[in-house]
Design brief:
about 350 residues, Rossmann fold, OB fold (Dihydrolipoamide Acetyltransferase, E2P), 2 domains, 20 strands, about 35% strand
Length: about 350
């Protein structure tokens, strides 16, 4: 079956600088796929190549099995929403939404009906005569979304559209984008550097690093089974402890921590034939804390305890000086009355850990 949208070996080079290197990706019809990564990782450049604003050094992009590289950006019929709302300030909300329809030669009656439908979709009924300057940032971004969807594009591209909004408003518009996606079933490619936003919105996430995609998967897959240390660090919070690979069998390792503790059957990422020194990755919420020594436990000292509402963060430090954060649910008995400087024991489930070389 022909993929709905396919990116084949895209590379973008600016002189000696390679911004995007050999990106391959397929996107299903109606999917919400997010490009996630830090600034300079290649995510926006890839999006601009899709939009037709940039031309790749090599590679191809196919929509419904046909290349779109030779099609000018204004003829690709792809919707685009930017960080800045790019609304026409001299036009009303209704005229802003109507603009791409007039360009495409829609009749006046069809435009009037479509503008009404779009205002209903983004819950801005009654705002058609208002100017953008008289609206909040969140309302302006809704208008930009309505304008991008008005002509029913097969793909909607969104480049960090919420980064200019405050946290509360950003979460509100995230909810609206998710609702609109479910209602319209439009295919969305979304760029952000905010991992929480990516997890909240996406069907799948492509994690970009230094111009390549490190890993693609659902939020749950990326969090539970990161393929690289970068993904492990970028998705969620992580603790890293130095270790040595003692033995490896079928992609799993037996390791020795610096205090001599041996832990077996941990997923291994990397080639231990070349390198045996690695880092053990643990999620803070998968660590347990006890004041008495137990089997297979790591000694540490409590440095700080921070109440964060739904949970408590316990900052500890191991004997070799490694900082380890433990996240416990609010009211957990293990932290009751523990002062700073207390010696504790850390335990974890090997199945929830990973070793990166």
């Amino acid at each position: 079956m022909t993929p709905f949208l396919e990116i084949r070996g895209i590379r973008k080079q600016y002189g000696p600088v390679v911004a995007v290197h050999d990106v391959n990706l397929t996107v299903d019809h109606g999917e919400f796929l997010t490009f996630l990564g830090p600034s300079g990782s290649g995510k926006s450049t890839t999006l601009y190549i899709l939009a037709g604003f940039e031309r790749p050094t090599r590679g191809d992009i196919l929509l419904k099995g046909k290349t779109i590289l030779e099609t000018p950006s204004h003829q690709r019929n792809i919707g685009m929403v930017f960080q800045r709302y790019t609304l026409f300030p001299h036009l009303s909300v209704g005229d802003n939404i109507a603009f791409p329809l007039k360009v495409r030669g829609w009749s006046k009656a069809a435009i009037t009906e479509r503008v009404r439908q779009m205002l209903t979709l983004v819950r801005l009924e009654g705002f058609e005569d208002r100017k953008p300057a008289a609206m909040s940032g969140g309302q302006q971004q809704r208008v930009a979304l309505a304008r991008a969807l008005a002509y029913d594009p097969p793909v909607l591209l969104m480049d960090e559209p919420l980064s200019a909004l405050d946290k509360k408003l950003r979460e509100e518009i995230q909810h609206e984008i998710r609702r609109i996606h479910q209602q319209t079933e439009v295919t969305i490619l979304y760029v952000t550097h905010d991992q929480e936003e990516a997890l909240r919105l996406s069907d799948r996430i492509a994690v970009f690093s230094h111009g390549v995609i490190d890993q693609i998967g659902t939020g749950e897959q990326l969090y539970a089974d990161p393929a690289t240390r970068f993904v492990a660090e970028f998705i969620g919070d992580s603790d890293f402890l130095p270790c040595r690979v003692v033995e490896q069998i079928n992609g799993r390792a037996r390791i020795a921590l610096t205090d001599g503790l041996i832990v077996s059957d941990i997923p291994l990422h990397g080639n231990s034939a070349r390198k045996t020194d690695g880092m053990l990755m643990l999620r803070p919420e998968r660590l347990s804390l006890a004041t008495k020594q137990t089997e297979m436990a790591l000694p540490a000292t409590v440095e700080d305890i921070t109440f964060l509402g739904t949970h408590v963060n316990v900052a500890t430090r191991t004997a070799d000086g490694t900082a380890v954060s433990v996240r416990l649910p609010f009211g957990h008995q293990a932290i009751s009355g523990i002062p700073r400087g207390t010696g504790v024991w850390l335990t974890f489930d090997a199945n929830a850990a990973h070793v990166f070389l």
